[in-house]
């Protein structure tokens, strides 16, 4: 049976119409995420302050909801997890055809950050305090209130840290400031971040590299400088190496600890009951004799000694190890009497 050409044309046009309608429906379904398979990104890293639908789901490039903000991002350097139930409700709300297979279908969201290390943060805070107190040239140990030794800024904050409105209490060490940082994503734009904590003023003082026993004379090779918090130093402590150079330990001195002033003294050059050399030097005469010390003597001190032969007692000045000299020339008759 021969099919009329007019009928054949009508069938062809009808078929083409059906194909066009089907294609349009599929395209709409794709755009709305109704029938195209999608999946979640198990782990994502965001830079912005918000998370968008397309950050979480793959395969929704043509969805009109792909740029929709779904949640705020975690703090810079922090992360959180979007659970399976929450993701299922999200997909249903935005007509994304996805369902979790297990409760472990989760998305972990990381916020990319610019890490400011301890040294950079310490230097910036110190510089801010120095601008506030121009005459203060010291160093500081910085502790933030959250206990962290580093700071995380948004990743697009790439400029130098500029501390503004610094408030610093020198007696307690507490500080409060506002940090300005330039935003690389917006030319000329700067963002403020509040920061507070404690900046302990540091003082460098001499300490010993080994234990010193009582009576030992301190040597320069055993002395180094070490930084201490100023509020943890003894009330009367040694501030400079010159204060302990050629001095002796009056008591035991511990290694690496700040030295108190009453822990050092001039070396004991003469000990009581020991023999010492007594000398008298004049432009015309030099005389020496041996005598017995009646008391201990440090450098420059005046002590009493006794002539071993005449048993006469007189005063001398300690000038060296077991070495003394007469302090009054009139005592020569007593000292050198037979």
If you had to describe this structure to a student in words, what would you say it looks like?
With 338 residues, this protein is α+β, with helices and mostly antiparallel strands. Helices cover 18% and strands 36% of the residues. The protein has five domains: 1-31; 39-110, no CATH class; 115-200, no CATH class; 203-265, Alpha-Beta Complex (Type Iii Antifreeze Protein Isoform Hplc 12), CATH 3.90.1210; 268-335, Roll (SH3 type barrels). The chain has helices spanning 5-32, 53-56, 84-93, 118-132, 332-335; strands at 39-40, 43-46, 50-52, 57-58, 69-72, 79-82, 107-111, 113-116, 139-144, 151-154, 162-168, 174-182, 190-208, 223-229, 248-249, 264-265, 268-270, 275-281, 286-293, 297-298, 302-307, 313-320, 323-326. The strands form eight sheets. Strands 9, 11, 12, 13 and 14 form a five-stranded antiparallel beta sheet that branches. A five-stranded mixed β-barrel has the order 18-19-21-22-23. Strand 21 (302-307) and strand 22 form a beta hairpin. The chain is rod-shaped and about 160 Å long. Mean pLDDT is 82; it is low at 21-35.
Q: What order do the helices and strands follow?
A: HEEEHEEEHEEHEEEEEEEEEEEEEEEH
Poorly predicted regions? 21-35
> In this structure, how is the largest beta sheet organized?
5 strands, antiparallel
First-last Cα distance? 167 Å
Number of strands: 23
Instruction: Kindly state the percentage of residues in helix.
Output: 10-25%
Helix tally equals: 5
Cα gyration radius (Å): 43 Å
Please report which band the strand proportion falls in: under 5%, 5-15%, 15-25%, 25-35%, 35-45% or over 45%. Answer: 35-45%
Give the count of structural domains: 5
Question: Residue-averaged pLDDT, rounded?
Answer: 82
**Oligomeric status:** single chain
Structural class: alpha+beta
Overall shape:
rod-shaped
